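S1.2 Input.
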Amino acid sequence: MKTPTLQAAALGTAAVLALALLPGLPAAWFAVRDASLAGRVLAAETSVGLLSPAGQTVEVACQLWLARDDLFNGYNPRTATAAELDEFAAAFDTFCQAGVLPDAFAAPLRQAVTAALPEDLEISPRDRGLVTWTLHFPDSDAFVQMEWVGDTAVSLAGQYNAGATLDTAAAADALCALLGLDTLADWQTLAATPAHGTLHTRYSADGQLYLHATFQEGYFSVGVSSVPEDDLTGLA
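S1.3 Output.
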């Protein structure tokens, strides 16, 4: 299970490599893939706009930097397996245990996730390493979505009438700690004036990371993405 523990496994906008989800790939393919990723890391460290020394020590920051500007190449989701649904449920539980969602908010969602079937979960890979996992609840507009980069879930979002509100600043704190991003010392809270609901945003120039948490009438989103400092205008 790829659960989101510190800089290791399991908040847009997140994901396993697209081909790594396919069964039966030979070991040689993974060797080539690993060499390619190593080359991309080297390129990132020698290019203009590279991460700061502090940012380069944070695995999630490096992974998101490499996957920056990863766009959908069409919409080609596939249905998850039973094992992948178990991974999704375990990752969701880890988010909740870390405090990204409070107990009052998470309890009804956890029940719905536990009752889900594999055909309710869609997995949508992109070109450069981001993968979106979306769990749809039958006969409703409710859903829960995670975005992964590498083996790390970096965002959690959804629409569900949980009968509770979300403390967005506390959710952002919890995600930051869960992903090991609190080792970056330069986080700054950004001024956010949403037209509706509540929004908390912060930015780390060292990691080139934009972290957000938002809540409005049952919709929630907590996640982190790689954003150049010059592109911050309009995000908060």
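S1.4 Remarks. The beta strands are 78-79, 121-125, 130-136, 143-149, 152-159, 188-190, 198-204, 209-216, 219-226.
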